[in-house]
Design a protein that fits this description.
The protein has 215 residues and is α/β, with parallel strands linked by helices. It is built from seven helices and six strands. Pathway: Sulfur metabolism; hydrogen sulfide biosynthesis; sulfite from sulfate.
């Protein structure tokens, strides 16, 4: 693909702004292709929440063997696990699974699932979501990170655009950033992709609360 760009010489804010202007009306395929041209060392992350099949399909049809990082909190619903297995099979995904170092059964005894306002909530989030994610990124060392963030999900996500930089300087790419649920429904139907809405995030009390990985 394109010339490899080292992580220490990644993008300036002006370059990110220019990319967002240039690709605001581009198709997901065009956005994904551009990201691979900028840097080939990429991963796509997923938790198999609703509409995740879209980003997994869109990226994998351009780069079939891309590492798919699945950080499983250990608290997913049976429906989510069944959905995940189906999507992995249908798209023949190259999945790298990351789970917390402590089982949910053990944590249920010593901590449970703390409420948002509880002092233990930060530690809980670190254990079930942030630590596995940091471990995944440390092992894969990507320069490009594909994700299915979309405008309208949270206040933070409304501000980032299709292209943004993570706290560690990784180019974060959200090809479906401007897409509505209705438009994604059509995409899933046209590509014979499944969806599942019985999803549970134990770190979030509200759907529009940021999960901690992106802010």
């Amino acid at each position: 693909m394109g010339k490899i760009i080292r992580q220490e010489t990644m993008f300036t804010n002006n370059q990110i702004e220019e990319l967002n202007k240039s690709f605001k009306k581009a198709t997901p395929a065009e956005i994904i292709q551009k990201a691979f041209e900028l840097n080939e060392k990429a991963v796509v992350t997923t938790n198999f929440r609703p509409y995740e099949a879209a980003i997994l399909h869109a990226v994998s049809i351009i780069e079939a063997n891309i590492p798919v990082v699945w950080c499983d909190t250990g608290y997913n619903t049976p429906q989510t696990y069944k959905h995940a297995e189906q999507v992995i099979k249908d798209l023949n995904l190259n999945v790298s699974l990351y789970v917390p170092k402590q089982t949910s059964a053990h944590r249920d005894v010593v901590m449970g699932i703390p409420s948002i306002d509880a002092p233990e909530h930060a530690l809980f989030t670190e254990q079930v979501k942030l630590e596995p994610f940091k471990r995944a990124m440390k092992e894969h060392k990507p320069n490009v990170w594909f994700t299915n963030l979309r405008q309208g999900q949270t206040a933070f996500r409304n501000s980032i655009g299709i292209f943004s930089l993570s706290k560690d300087g990784v180019l974060k790419v959200s090809p479906f950033y401007y897409w509505s649920d209705e438009k994604l429904d059509i995409y899933l139907e046209e590509n014979n992709l499944s969806n599942e809405f019985k999803y549970f995030d134990p770190t979030k009390a509200l759907e529009n609360r940021e999960c901690g990985l992106h802010a």
